[in-house]
Amino acid sequence: MVVAPLTLSSLALATLFVAALPFLIYRRLRRPLALKPRDAIAGIAVFALFAMVIERALNDFVLHRNEATAEFLSHPLAFVVYGALAAGICEEVGRFIGMRLLLKRAAAKSGAAALAQGKAEIATDGTALTYGLGHGGAEAWLVGVLVQIQWLLFAVFENRGELDGYLSNLPTESLMRIHLILASLTPQTAGIFALERVAALVFQIGLSVLMWRGLRAGWRGILPLAIALHALVDVPAAMFQAQLVPLAAVDAVYAVGAVIVAGLLFRTFRRPAVVA
């Protein structure tokens, strides 16, 4: 079987777009909002540690290594609740810790008087935006781009007739599954991938701005709220994984939600420059 050239090019373009988007947004807004690379680095580090290490280790134990929890979570509803809460708790606790450290650093540098006035407001909101770009950009790359590059390589080897030899160490069942996935790829698959990754980036930026403003206001309920909202965002994907809803419905929900959040973010950052 052969992956059509149109499908292959569509997947490549979608992957390049998702890979470049966080950098393009940062470059476009760097000067107007005084964005700092260290804030993005903080977001990248938090996602890598709390989502890629802690959350994955938790999921491996709960879903595979512990027979009691694995059996309980085999029920679709239990899996949906666990999957949404696990992602929400791990990522938002990490975001809370990372942003508290950034806030302390900003307070120490700017001083309480400067923060009390309106002079640093755009810069501090810019910190949240930059952190969100780092957090969401790391997710886009580690969960999306790198995985998609792997599938692109598989597709190239498939078209050359070299895939079986390249993956000769895999069991036959796993190899057949890869062949079936490659056969199911279409240009629409590329569009779905881009939609999901862009929506995830928008949600991560929105959650970062929400967390930042809650911390600046000293609101103790910001962490539970962020966990609940993050879990709510992950519910449709978890329901799809549990085969409770079709992918089209999930993507429609994410598209509408991303447009709403993007609109709120645009209104948040569409302000006149502050002159010191």
Name the descriptors:
disordered C terminus; mainly alpha; about 280 residues; about 85% helix; single chain
Description of the structure:
The chain has ten helices and no strands. It is an all-alpha fold and 276 residues long. It has one domain. Helix 1 runs antiparallel to helix 5, helix 4 (76-116) packs antiparallel against helix 5 and helix 4 (76-116) packs across helix 8 (187-216). The longest helix has 41 residues, at 76-116. It is globular, with a radius of gyration of 21 Å. The chain starts with a helix and ends in a 7-residue tail after the last helix. Residues 118-123 and 272-276 have low confidence and may be disordered. Keywords: Lipoprotein, Membrane, Transmembrane, Transmembrane helix.
* Structural class by helix and strand composition: mainly alpha
Report strand %. under 5%
General shape? globular
Radius of gyration: 21 Å
Kindly report how far apart the N and C termini lie.
63 Å
Proportion of residues in helical segments: over 70%
Reported for the largest beta sheet, the result is: none
Number of helices, counting only DSSP H or I runs of 4 residues or more: 10
Number of strands: 0
Task: Tell me the number of structural domains.
Answer: 1
Order of helices and strands: HHHHHHHHHH
**Which regions are unreliable across 5 or more consecutive residues at pLDDT < 50?**
118-123, 272-276
Please state the average pLDDT score.
91
Protein name: Transmembrane lipoprotein
Transmembrane segments: 6-26, 38-57, 77-97, 222-240, 246-266
InterPro entries: YhfC
Keywords: Lipoprotein, Membrane, Transmembrane, Transmembrane helix
